[in-house]
């Protein structure tokens, strides 16, 4: 997480030099070159389980965001001098790419994740920093641990427009969320990914295809052991449940404070009314029953629900992963049982 935070800080410094025009069309698909995907996978796998980030380069064409190239960010600790050095490194990389006639327009960034644990406040802050300079950008998430299960765990994410509008106002109270009709599933939008290769590369890949009916990769898909993956997902799920319970305790403490404040206000009003009754009997002017300067009449601000929304999103993600792996395991068991009976 420290590497991710450092990468986000470097990106904030780097984005000060980038400006693009607003895109009139909504983003429908992210088209990625096969070479860019291989670079992302190679970078994430080499440093796994450490989390890494990198820059996405490409073109914004109509409703399609084309990712044609990428390069990794250096892994550094959090420091102002190192942040400036990282920004200079990115600018130098883009200058070199421009000199060799390679697309050097920033269209987002990619980052690795562990068991889908990417829905964090740092990711949202990085998105907002990008949105200040780039109207349409995406974050490519790659999960090496899930890819080991035979699935290319690659997805493109962006923040929803309604969530970004609410984030700019920095008001995640229950009243505002109900007014905007925003739920925890409305934070991120997943954009479909389309892999694109040049005709020459497609022809070479066709020539490289083997004629063997069964390969070792096909046999590896029948591997029944997925205990470590399931255990880690369950551990992460338990941690998320603990975090959600802690968030709920914050809200319970908030409501207890409101109840205590209301009781104090009622007690103060009763005393004030008794004093006014005595003053009226003495022929004096009654005192106002509301005193804005009194601390007990100051409203208690509602706690932010952003953390609970992100934790709920993360819980749903872990549950979906567990459900998917369990379903695949049952299918493999039925398949191997049928083969064994034959």
UniProtKB/TrEMBL annotation:
PROSITE patterns: MPN. GO terms for biological process: formation of cytoplasmic translation initiation complex. Keywords: Cytoplasm, Initiation factor, Protein biosynthesis. Residues 272-283 have a biased composition (Basic and acidic residues). SMART domains: JAB_MPN. Residues 30-163 form the MPN domain. One of its GO terms (molecular function) is metallopeptidase activity. Component of the eukaryotic translation initiation factor 3 (eIF-3) complex. Belongs to the eIF-3 subunit H family. Component of the eukaryotic translation initiation factor 3 (eIF-3) complex, which is involved in protein synthesis of a specialized repertoire of mRNAs and, together with other initiation factors, stimulates binding of mRNA and methionyl-tRNAi to the 40S ribosome. The eIF-3 complex specifically targets and initiates translation of a subset of mRNAs involved in cell proliferation. This is Eukaryotic translation initiation factor 3 subunit H. It comes from Saponaria officinalis. The lineage of its organism: Eukaryota, Viridiplantae, Streptophyta, Embryophyta, Tracheophyta.
